[in-house]
Amino acid sequence: MDQLKRHARLISFGLVLLLFFLGHAAKLYEIEFINRLDAILYDYRLQLTMPRKVDDRLVILDIDEKSLKEEGRWPWSRDRLALLMDKLFDRYGVAVAGFDVVFAEKDESSGLNVLQELGNKQLKDVPQFQAALAQLRPQLEYDNLFASKIKSRNVVMGYYFTNNESASKANISGVLPPPAFPPGTFKGRPIGFIQWDGYGGNLPELQKNAASAGHFNPKVDADGSVRRVPMIVEYNGAYYESLSLAVVRTLLGFPNLTPGYASQQSADYSGLEWLEISDMRIPVDQDVSTLVPYRGGRGSFRYLSVADVLHDRIPPADLKNKIVLVGTSAPGLMDMRSTPVGSVYPGVEIHANMITGILDQNLKQKPPYVAGAEVVLLLISGVALGLLLPLLSPVKATLLTVLALGFALAGNMAIWHYAGLDLPLAGGMLMILGLFGLNMSYGFFVTDRTKRQITNLFGKYVPSELVEEMTKHPEQMVSMEGESREMTILFSDVRGFTTISEGLDPKELSQLMNEFLTPLSRVIYKYHGKVDKYMGDCIMAFWGAPKPEPDHARNAILAGIEMQQTLQKLQPHFKERGWPEIHVGVGINTGKVSVGNMGSEARVAYTVMGDAVNLASRLEGITKQYGVGVMVGENTQSAVPDFIYRELDQVRVKGKDEPVAIYEPIGPKGQVDEAVLEELKMFHQALKLYRKQDWDQAELQLYNLQRMYPECKLYQVYAERVAHFRSNPPGADWDGVFEFKTK
Fold first, then answer.
1. Under a CB-based contact definition with an 8 Å cutoff, are residues 622 and 586 in contact?
2. What SS3 string covers 355-399?
């Protein structure tokens, strides 16, 4: 109880979040994002559980590109459709034929009107013409011919409803079939039938002779996808069935259609949960719509070209006793829909899925009461999590959240699979994640306040980037106590800085310092380096601590090379501002150093010390002697063998007795031009001749290098040394080491 009191504010926030989701579930308001996510989750569940098998009970006669090419553009003359009826029922013996097209206009393609006009005027008194016309008239009245061919056959016509701002005769064409339920059938019940104020029906003679008819209007969701089909819709007080329902009823011999009501009803709940035909139930939702039981992607039913049927190219057994839907997949006829199983999906196949779903009785249910079920589940899980999460540690809270999400998902899938119930999932999952996020955010902001205090405290003696890394990855950090470790150290310094500073006023000098130190520091950070300190115009950085870093030497070399490239790009900007060119030397060395907190009682700093650090500083200092931008010691060169280097010299720097080999890194192997490799080969040969004291050959090689690369200071340096040693031979015991007397 004490813990609940201590976390009362956080628990209150959680309950407010719960109420937010309860309001959406109870339909007090709509959150479009949740609805959209629910639709996406519905699609995933549908795709995971689809049978993905072709249903051979139903065949789609496709008005495809092939048919249009052979028979001409749509609409075809009705005599061809009359022939199609004879083929389907007499030759092929189909069980039912349904049309996913509407025949709202008269067919005048036979030319009968022209002949009658001639008979009424120019040929009025020609008995032979009048007799021939009377004999031909039945054959040329294509609509009547088509109507006679569908009479007494299981033919289901299709039609559509429309909605305009105001009902008028302008949006009414053709005639409707008798309604499935007459006006007044559902009087007094709050049923949310989709209502229409117009329609596009078939010609009277066609509708009169058809066995049945149904609308082919789908219900399009907010995202433009078709997931449901209204089984019954309302027009002018009467109620009309869908094409799929009409086809099934025709197939079964026109059984009565009966509304099914739940036992529990109220003023707000009509109780209409299903429609019943024979011994089959069709579950409906609050709009009297049914979820389409998609079998798979496009092509879940066999498609046959209408042209092949008309020309007897199909074996009769392929259509015997089959349900046939006449529709189109031709893009130009505009009967493509967006569905959960395809963004371009033939509308006729939607009806095919509905028909076979009704026959198989595998329709998912989404009755109006699922809103109440969702409210109860949200309330139970929300209260439980809202009370438990504040009491748990972050690890346990995370584990509980994962379990809650897993249980919600598994339970929803079980209800979907075994009960055939589409229970909303997005609201529950978002609520669980929201409660978890609320608890973690609350803890984070409290912890973050402490973190800022620690950063302010440690920032006085530890580099801020180290504090940031410590807070991000505490599990990877090692002790800040001093220890010995192999690391790589980099020094960079501006050449001739004293002269530069004397030529600028203090404000400009400060701006200049900021504008070249900032991008160079960014390069160091890019390659995971730590800026130890700024010493005037000098930068000291290191790699390999506090977190171990296997590639510390390689990253330091890459940083040094890119620092030179970055500075080169800044030169035009400096020139525009009237500043002098800036050139820096970069010295890099690898070795054992002491790293950790070092300093006095008044102030400490996380830094590195040791001979390897001093040598890096000395290397930076002598870069200008050789005219190179980046210089590395022999340990660094050995640590990164996949680089091309120019060996510069063997030197003994001030303060060290042992000589060290120094190198200029050129670039990764495989990325250096052949011309540069040839230049390096020539210099290394000259260097060998120089160390052998073969002054003549060394001078010749250096002369060629100077002639080819006059801008390279290194070759001038060695040419001067050769000239000096020619006059002052170093002796037979000379080891080729050059000794620097100054830093």
1. no
2. HHHHHHCCCCECCCCHHHHHHHHHHHHHHHHHHHHHHCCHHHHHH
Task: Give the gyration radius of the chain's Cα atoms.
Answer: 44
User: Quick check: 587 and 618 in contact, CB under 8 A?
Assistant: yes
Is the same domain home to 299 and 250?
A: yes
Looking at residue 461, its pLDDT comes to 39
CA atoms of 435 and 12, how far apart (whole Å): 11
> Looking up tokens 């990325």, which residue turns up?
671
> What is the pTM assigned to this prediction?
0.59
- Phi and psi torsions of 515, nearest 5°: -80, -15
Q: Are 635 and 519 in contact (CB under 8 A)?
A: no
Q: How many structural domains is the chain composed of?
A: 4
What is the Cα–Cα distance from 441 to 448, expressed in whole angstroms?
Answer: 10
CB atoms within 10 A of CB 476: 11
Mean pLDDT of the chain: 85
Give the pLDDT band (50/70/90) at residue 475.
very low
> Are 235 and 269 within one domain?
yes
How many other C-beta atoms lie within 10 A of the C-beta of residue 681? 10
| pLDDT reported for residue 472 | 53
* Domain's final residue, options 339, 360, 381: 360
Query: Smallest Cα–Cα separation from 269: which of 365, 372, 194?
Result: 372
Structure tokens at 295: 């079998």
Check pLDDT > 90 for residue 334: no
Q: Note whether 219 and 332 are same-domain residues.
A: yes
Q: In CATH, what number is assigned to the domain containing residue 530?
A: 3.30.70.1230
Confidence of residue 731 (pLDDT cuts 50, 70, 90): confident
Q: What is the pLDDT of residue 477?
A: 47
Helix (H) or strand (E) holding 533: strand 530-535
Last residue of a domain, one of 617, 648, 667: 667
Cβ-proximal residues to 571 (8 Å cutoff; 6+ apart), any chain: 581, 582
Give the C-alpha separation, 352 to 355, whole Å.
5
Higher pLDDT among residues 718 and 447, named by residue: 718
Is 303 part of a structural domain of the chain? Answer: yes
Buried residues in 702-722 as b, exposed as e (16+ CB within 10 A): beebbeeeeebebbebbbebb
- 490 beta partners: 541, 588
Q: Which residues contact 675 (CB under 8 A, 6 or more apart)?
A: none
Residue 30 is encoded by which pair of tokens?
């709509």
Q: Where are the extended beta strands (E) located within 544-691? A: 584-599, 604-609, 630-633, 643-652, 660-668
Say yes or no: 499 and 632 in one domain. yes
Place of tokens 């009682």: 601
* Tens digit of each residue's pLDDT (9 = 90 or more) over 61-104: 999 889 888 888 888 888 889 999 999 999 999 999 999 999 98
Domain of 262 in residue numbering reads as: 57-108+154-360
Give the Cα-Cα-Cα angle 86, 89, 95 (nearest 5 degrees). Answer: 155
